[in-house]
Amino acid sequence: MAAILEPIVYSEPSARFVKTYEAKKLSDKSGADWDDKANPLLVGLKREIKNHYLKAQDYTCAYCQQKIIVNHNGAWDTEHIAPRDSYPGFMFVPENLCVSCKDCNGAKSNKPVLANKKRRSFPRHSKDYTICHPHFDIYSKHIRVVGEAVLYLPKTKKGQALIEMCGLLRFVYSFADYEISDLNFGTKVVALGTELQNAQSTFEQIAIAQILRTMLDEGLRGAALTRLKQME
């Protein structure tokens, strides 16, 4: 996935549809317009949008950066960064679109992302958003991802807001759920130990140390429970 996302350039039929839609009064627009399955032009436009961003993002979620290559595009959601229910006028603005995994999209839902919630024209600058924006921000400047643990460490307030909004702590909880008997447990502990040594700040050291402690506590607890069951 590129550092800054490439916006879609609509095909001629799709561009005509979007132009017609955007010419409507704001009061005549609704987030529900997106779900009109009876309109073949809209169905084709939505397919065009999803296919573009899947390729532009290299099948990588804009929010958690997890790469998911599947044959069925239904595993992905087309994401309106400023929610379409709140801002139907931004529904087809290319810079308001990307693809995300279903977990991130579900967690983000209709949460507000604009610094000015009453904004009427589409905001085109990083400062206009409270989260790391796929089109206007470089992800790595706001969030560092520790690969082995899939641990998200915020570098900025926008990074922290994205981590909280999209529920990225779910990876920490999943990663911590290992028993000592798990064959990968030792490898993952060593990998996290290396990350701890390479931590770029005191904050990162504390965060990684906490997940190591969680892993060990949960692993020991799981191993003890397994042993008790074997003794029954």
TrEMBL record:
Keywords for the protein's UniProt record, in alphabetical order: Endonuclease, Hydrolase, Nuclease
CDD domains: HNHc
Pfam families from the UniProt entry: HNH (PF01844)
The keyword Hydrolase is annotated on this UniProt entry: yes
UniProt-listed InterPro entries: HNH (IPR002711), HNH_nuc (IPR003615)
GO molecular function: endonuclease activity; nucleic acid binding; zinc ion binding
Domain HNH: 61-111
Name of the protein in question: HNH endonuclease
Organism this protein belongs to: Pseudomonas gingeri
